[in-house]
Amino acid sequence: MPGDPSEPNTARRLAAGRIDVTESAFTAGDIDTSVPHPARMYDWFLGGKDSYPADWAAAEEVVQLMPGAKETAWANREFMHRAVRFVANRGVRQFLDIGTGIPTEPNLHQIAQEVAADASVVYTDNDPIVLRHAEALLRGRPEGRTAYVQADLRDPESIVAHARTHLDFDQPIALSLIALLHYVTDEQHPQRIIDTLLAPLAPGSHLLLSHVTHEFNPGIWERIDEIYRSGGTPVRARSRTEVAAFFTGLDMCDPGVVVGPKWRPDRTMRIRDEEMPVYVGVARKV
């Protein structure tokens, strides 16, 4: 039997699906269930079970302010599915997913490996509750490789260093920043983080990004920020112009930066409302 994924300071390869788990000294005791956490709230929005009363209460407050919060979470998730298929069909076989969150099937590696069974995926998150689920849920196809790295977006150099042990940086990589940058304040310099992550990637690499916006209902976001701050994580909703700026220097893929359901819609979608407050886009490094 594999060891407990909350065990600190271990690194191991599992036979099934070639999973690598690189861990820090986090343990299950580091999980504070008395305050709301964005990953657990997002899991609740998606109908998952990995949340606690503090998360339920905070998520329900968000729903009262934004009744479409659950649908927005699903629109974001469905964009990830379509974007991953899109870049995989373009020949990309490596994926670096930062801010993985609590796994919800189908996960990114499952989508990528449906297109190419030998696709390699590195998941990265700094949340100990995500680490606790990594071994059980992030199992890939035998031909491919799936790895989990405990790291923080605010230390992009460390992420790149860890990813180099699993991915070939001489070949294109899809960098996935899904529903993540709205937890990065302006003072934390999100553009510097993106630039640091993109700089070592080979030409032909892609950036997949989604981000909440205040443009559809600006009056609610100060209160939503307060709810998330109560758990220690502020939210910085941004405009379409601000989100588009994150793609500076890249070749935007059609249809550009649009609300989630407008990005290459297909028959698999369940959310089609074109006023979902989340902007998305995919761009290629040239």
TrEMBL record:
The keyword Transferase applies. Keywords: Methyltransferase, Transferase. Pfam families: Methyltransf_19. GO terms for biological process: methylation. GO terms for molecular function: methyltransferase activity. This is SAM-dependent methyltransferase.
